[in-house]
């Protein structure tokens, strides 16, 4: 009789060595951790202040929500990689009518490429860059970290923003960085995710001038450009975009990314666009031909009538009225709880706040995040916004480890409930 013991089965399947471990971005990480504790997006008892999308329900004064879609038989086919011509023309026309009236250089369909989501648009642009130094800011959008690590032709160069300056960065600062570091391109979210800083008005015009004069491409993620709270920019119609300041649409090295995701509150449509010089659009379209193959033709068709100036301005006004109330609620509520806010958000639907003065057990972003999960509140720790491609700056403590990003994207009732639970969490921590 054999006495050989049965083989011991590993508790986890072995790693497949051909694949690397791909890190989760901030929102994916926090929702994954929340799901381990029973989080379900449809469960009303959870407050997701980590979400990167706005509420998509009807708002007072906004155009009616699209609730159904009729698909023409011809639209069962693939869409062109650059998008259907009618939608490309609608996007170009929207920018010309809202931001470029009377200017001799106008966008055309050839200046627009449609893609299936913001990350897809960013990936196409990143794949189209050559051997350049690409400046990026700290802190900034969490998904940039992996994006900047995957493509190896360009070299990511971090640029530190100082909280003591309110995360300000002037055109003179930009010129110094471009000249000193030999930057061929700069990538940033504007308004900034997570800080809410907006580069707008005359400062944005000066940035575009620096890009033109230094031949440095400005790659501007403008997905929050209709969530603008600065009074001077709100007076311009509430939309902040570099398209206002481009002199020649085919010569100025300005590339703009936007879409229905945030500014029209249709995140599930994954309908976005890239606007820039024709040569850039040709490049990102070629990249799209091997990266993603193009977006949804039926949804592109359905998006056209959302992009009239009248519908766009009505949606923007409704956003600013309703989200402005939630901004005030979140900002004042967090301050009352003891959070430090470096900069009241000038844009976006986020508040970037430090937990440094809270009770010691929850005085950093990750500790607060885990404690808040016990109260069914989701937040995003600041570490995830310390964009560090390839961990080139080491794995030590992040400058933003005390910070968290709080979203006021959810409906007001969820924001209010979350603040109640946060107050109770802090009170319990202080009593221990």
Which fold name fills CATH's third level, the topology of the largest domain? Aspartate Aminotransferase, domain 2
Query: Could you give the order of the helices and strands?
Result: HEHEHEHEHEHEHEHEHHHEEHEEEH
Biggest beta sheet attributes? 7 strands, mixed
Structural class: alpha/beta
Portion of residues within helices: 25-40%
The number of distinct structural domains comes to 2
Distance between the termini: 62 Å
The fraction of residues assigned to DSSP E strands is 5-15%
- In the CATH hierarchy, what is the class of the largest domain? Alpha Beta
Number of strands: 13
If you had to describe this structure to a student in words, what would you say it looks like?
It is built from 13 helices and 13 strands. The chain has helices at residues 26-35, 85-99, 118-128, 144-150, 171-181, 201-214, 231-234, 260-263, 278-291, 297-303, 309-337, 365-373, 412-431; strands spanning 47-48, 112-115, 133-138, 155-160, 183-189, 217-221, 254-259, 272-275, 340-341, 350-354, 377-378, 380-381, 403-407. Helix 3 packs across helix 9 and helix 5 (171-181) runs parallel beside helix 6. The longest helix is centred in the last third of the chain and has 29 residues, at 309-337. The protein is globular, with a radius of gyration of 23 Å. The termini are far apart. The mean pLDDT is 94.
Please sum up the structure shown.
The protein has 432 residues and is an alpha/beta fold. It contains 13 helices and 13 strands. Helix content is 36%, strand content 13%.
């Amino acid at each position: 009789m054999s006495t050989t013991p049965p083989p011991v089965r590993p508790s986890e399947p072995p790693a497949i060595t051909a694949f690397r471990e791909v890190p989760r971005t901030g929102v994916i990480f926090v929702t994954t951790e929340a799901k381990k504790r029973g989080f379900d997006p449809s469960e009303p008892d959870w407050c997701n202040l980590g979400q990167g999308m706005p509420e998509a329900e009807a708002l007072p004064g906004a155009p009616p929500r699209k609730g159904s879609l009729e698909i023409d038989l011809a639209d069962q086919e693939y869409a062109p990689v650059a998008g259907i011509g009618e939608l490309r023309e609608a996007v170009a026309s929207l920018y010309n009518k809202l931001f470029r009236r009377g200017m001799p250089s106008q966008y055309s369909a050839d200046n627009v490429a449609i893609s299936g989501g913001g990350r897809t648009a960013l990936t196409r642009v990143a794949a189209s860059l050559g051997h350049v130094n690409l400046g990026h800011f700290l802190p900034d959008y969490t998904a940039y970290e992996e994006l900047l690590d995957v493509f190896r032709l360009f070299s990511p160069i971090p640029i530190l923003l100082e909280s003591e300056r309110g995360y300000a960065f002037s055109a003179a600062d930009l010129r110094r960085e471009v000249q000193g570091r030999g930057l061929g391109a700069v990538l940033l979210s504007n308004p900034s995710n997570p800080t809410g800083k907006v580069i707008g008005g005359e400062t944005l015009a000066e940035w575009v001038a620096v890009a033109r004069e230094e031949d440095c491409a400005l790659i501007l993620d403008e997905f929050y450009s209709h969530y603008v709270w600065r009074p001077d920019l709100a007076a311009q119609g509430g939309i902040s975009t570099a398209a206002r300041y481009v002199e020649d649409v085919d010569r100025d090295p300005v590339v703009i990314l936007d879409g229905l995701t945030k500014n029209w509150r249709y995140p599930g449509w994954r309908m976005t666009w890239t606007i820039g010089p024709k040569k850039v659009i040709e490049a990102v379209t070629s990249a799209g031909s091997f990266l993603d193959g193009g977006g949804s033709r039926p949804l592109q068709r359905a998006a056209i009538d959302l992009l009239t100036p009248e519908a766009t301005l009505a949606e923007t006004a409704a956003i600013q009225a309703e989200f402005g109330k939630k901004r005030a609620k979140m900002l004042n509520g967090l301050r009352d709880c003891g959070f430090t806010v470096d900069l009241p958000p000038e844009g976006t639907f986020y508040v970037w706040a430090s937990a440094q003065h809270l009770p010691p057990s929850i005085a950093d972003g990750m500790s607060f995040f885990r404690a808040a999960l016990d109260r069914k509140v989701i937040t995003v720790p600041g570490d995830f916004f310390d964009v560090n491609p390839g961990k080139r700056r080491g794995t030590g403590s992040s400058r933003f480890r005390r910070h968290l990003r709080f979203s006021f994207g959810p409906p007001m009732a969820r924001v209010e409930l979350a603040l109640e639970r946060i107050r109770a969490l802090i009170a319990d921590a202080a009593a221990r």
